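fyi for ur records
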Amino acid sequence: MKKADRPIVEILFPVVRARLLEALFTRPVRQRYVRELERMTNLALHTIQDELRKLTAIGIVRTWSNGYHRFYSSNQSHPLFRHLLPIVEASAKLPKTKQVALQRPPSRRKKRPRRRPIHLRPDRQPNWGISKSSPKT
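which gave:
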């Protein structure tokens, strides 16, 4: 995949979440441990752990440990599972979106030249107009 092309799931969701959903919500649904997800998604371990913590907190992802590894899998009994699975599967089949199409077009307005700041002479005190006793020059 070119860097300029992005799957639809990465546009709908933040990139980290989209990659984890792609790894966990594919058929056949499998349990995966964190290092396996790290290799599959090319994301940093801490980033994956943070996102998995969020997905586990809302119940979309289940987790358990065998004493050596912590495993994660999609929660098929969660009400959103039957909605997320087709989105992730369809995203893999649909054409990628060009990154250029997602960016804001360049402005057509001409840029105004920057105004140069006005500098006071060092021997002149500023007149802020706060008091009536300020000398007028």
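The chain has a mean pLDDT of 84. thats all i got for now
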